[in-house]
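This week, think about what follows.
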Amino acid sequence: MQDAHVLLPDMSELLSFTSVVLAVFDGHGGARASRFAAENLHLNLARKFPTGESENLEKLIKKSLLDTFKQTDEDFLKKASSQKPAWKDGSTATCALVVDDTVYVANLGDSRVHQTFISDGHRQTLFWLIVAESRRDIPTSGEWPLL
């Protein structure tokens, strides 16, 4: 299996806010990249996450997610290129971070988070679906898509 996932229902000790981290990594070419991301993304997030209260907290959280994805990618590339022969594994990454009552979503590659409501006529239930999509229309500009 080349895929990995993380569900951390209480990150409050690491992030100093009531928080939950859910992430899915869709590996390809091997399992090392997805496993590495599953083991390290949340730790990098803890290092990059803003501390204390701020008027710009939402902006700082978004930046910390972007920096976390970049750092995790750089760390894996460094490790993969130092191997003999070099690892050729890769992985998409999709992360949902819940801080207090706000959900932040970040993704890299063709995995996405979809939000949907399901109603039984009396109540609605919110579902977050983390899925891998095979799409050719996703830009390859080298930018890190952050929703």
Summary: Confidence is low (pLDDT under 50) at residues 132-147. The helical segments are 12-15, 32-48, 57-81. The longest strand covers residues 19-28.
